[in-house]
Amino acid sequence: MSLRLDAPTGAVRVRRFSRAERWVHRTTAALMGVCVVTAACLYVPQLAELVGRRELVVRLHEWAGLALPVPVLAGLASRAFRADLRFLNRFGPHDRVWLRAALRRDKRAAARPAGKFNAGQKIYAAWIAGATLVMLGTGLMMWFTHLTPLVWRTSATFVHDWLALTIGIVLAGHIGMALGDPEARRGMRTGSVSREWAEREHSVWRP
User: Is the pTM higher than 0.90?
Assistant: First the structure.
C-alpha cells in the first residue's frame, strides 16, 4: 500500500492513480472536449455564426475524433492502467448491492459498497468506450464518402448525430458528479486521496 502524509492537513493519503493514468484521462478529456465543442459549433446555428470558419471547425472535429482512442492505446503501456481496466471490466456482488442502493436513491456510504471503482463508474466507462467506437466508425463513413453506399452514409449520419447528443448529456452528468466530489477530483489531479474518503466511498477497495 502506498501511503503518505498530507503536510497541510496531516491526513493520511493513499495512491489512487498513476501519472500515466492521469495523463490518459486528461488527454482523452481534452480531445472529447474538442469534439463536443466543435460539434456544437457545427450544429447550433448561433454558434456557427459566432465562430465562422466552418471548414477549420470540421477539420478540428475530424482529427480530434480520430485521435480519441490514441491516449487509451498509449496508456496500455502502463501496468497500473491495464490493472484499472481489469477492475473496470469486472462486476462483483458488491456492485449489484451498489446499483440497488442507487436505484433506491439510498446515499448512505454503508449501503453502497464499492471497489476501486463503483458500479456506476464501471457502467459509464463501458458505455462511453462503446459509444466512442461507434462514433469513430460512423464518423469515418461520413468522412470517406466514396467508401460506402449512400444508404450507409445516411444511416451513419443519423446514428452519429443522435449518439453525439446522448454523449453530451452523459458527459454533463459525469462532470456534474465530479464537481460534487472534490476529493475524487483531487485524486485525479494529484494521484492520491485521503484514506478516510477511500474507506467511506470505496470500502471494498484495498489499495
Answer: no
